[in-house]
Design a protein that fits this description.
With about 280 residues, the protein is α/β, with parallel strands linked by helices. It has 9 helices and 14 strands. The strands form 2 sheets. Strands 1-2-3-4-5-6-7 form a 7-stranded mixed β-sheet. It has a 7-stranded mixed β-sheet with strand order 8-9-10-11-12-13-14, covered by helices on one side. The longest helix has 15 residues. The chain is globular and about 65 Å long. The chain starts with a strand and ends in a 10-residue tail after the last strand. The model has no long low-confidence stretch (mean pLDDT about 95). The structure holds zinc ion (2 copies). One zinc ion (ZN) binds next to helix 1.
Length: about 280
């Protein structure tokens, strides 16, 4: 049932069908984006990032919490989400806890656009504004690494050590934009947060692929149409662009062909369609 693709150093694993369910795991970062399904293997994850509160993105969270308990996890997972939805999600989980006489607990991490939270080691998540009819966020995963200040390059090791002993700050922080996740949004997300176009891997929705849905209708639903990706084709600097959240209007086995026909080759060769390899959507 799960689809797995490789995008540079990252494994992208899960399911994403627009309006049906989206849940994507990146094991190398220890993260799960959205909780639209709850397969057994996702129970090992300790950090979940929710894009927004629509059911196809959060509906499976209670089941996932139950599966974590089966995995022997006693500490509630960190759940990063738009600040505006924390209270409503807690109310929903409280109702379900009452229903099943078992506590469904999370450690909520409320975020607003521009906020940053350290996840683990040198990994930081930055929230970016997305454009959907409900409170929503995209996420940019950044590795913040300490580098020797450029003006000290070329100095001998003992000279650098002496500066450090003298209390001089010999390092500066460098941000490596590793992976970005943006779904359920107008394409304006790319204009508002152009740093997404520089992330090594961009996982982005492209719900509609051709004129079976008009550009106007896609925009009215606050989703991205392939026409809008093509318009911006030369702005993507990403090593890989994983397009997900495709509508079930398209058969899984025609998605790659539509991209081949429509997307300029320089971008097409970096696009990985996140669809099952067989002819059907799961379920
Ligand atoms: Zn969705
Ligand atoms: Zn949505």
């Amino acid at each position: 049932m799960l689809t797995t693709v490789t995008a540079g150093p990252y494994t992208i694993r899960g399911v994403s069908v627009g309006g049906v369910y989206t849940s994507i795991q990146v094991p190398e970062l220890g993260l799960l984006f959205d909780a639209g399904i709850s397969p057994r293997s996702f129970g090992a994850i300790d950090t979940i990032l929710l894009s927004h509160g629509h059911a196809d993105h959060v509906g499976a969270l209670p089941a996932l919490l139950g599966i974590r308990a089966l995995h022997g996890k006693t500490k509630p997972p960190r759940v990063v989400m738009p600040a505006e939805i924390v209270d409503d999600l807690q109310v929903a989980l409280a109702a379900l806890s009452k229903l099943q006489r078992w506590p469904l607990e999370i450690e909520p991490v409320p975020m607003m656009p521009g906020d940053e939270v350290a996840l683990r080691g040198d990994l930081v998540v930055r929230a970016v504004r997305t454009f959907h009819p409900v409170p929503s966020l995209g996420y940019l995963l950044v590795r913040r690494v300490a580098k020797l200040r450029p003006e000290l390059h070329g100095l001998a090791g003992d000279e650098i050590a002496a500066k450090k002993r003298a209390g001089e700050d010999i390092t500066s922080l460098e941000d490596r934009l590793e992976l970005a996740y943006a779904t359920d949004t107008l394409v304006s997300v790319l204009d508002h947060s152009p740093e997404l176009l520089k992330a090594r891997v961009l996982v982005m929705e492209c719900t509609f692929l051709d004129d079976r849905k008009s550009l106007e209708a896609a925009r009215a639903g606050c989703h991205i149409h392939l026409d809008e990706v093509i318009e911006r084709a030369d702005r993507f600097e990403n090593e890989h662009v994983v397009l997900m959240h495709c509508s079930q209007l398209y058969r899984t086995d025609e998605v790659a062909g539509i991209l081949d026909r429509r997307v300029p080759p320089a971008l097409r060769k970096r696009i990985i369609p996140f669809v099952p390899t067989d002819a059907h959507w799961p379920g």
